[in-house]
Design brief:
Length: 68
């Protein structure tokens, strides 16, 4: 019976350590998913408010500098 309790205590110890190590990563993942969902929602709203898509400009601007 003593060996069974030692094994159970060891398994529980490993599980607790795993949860303590994995919990911050899981919380961060949930936070990132919530932010991504909010960004998609905001992009969808701004796209609907902007109207039809704008045609890209047909010209390119450049800057010319004088080298010494």
């Amino acid at each position: 019976m003593n060996a069974l309790m030692d094994n159970l205590a060891g398994i529980l110890t490993v599980l607790v350590i795993f949860v303590v190590l994995a919990l911050p990563a899981l919380i961060g993942l949930a936070h990132e998913r919530r932010i991504d969902r909010q960004l998609k929602e905001a992009a969808g709203r701004s796209h609907r408010e902007a109207g039809p898509p704008q045609r890209p400009q047909a010209f390119v601007t450049t800057t010319v500098t004088v080298h010494s």
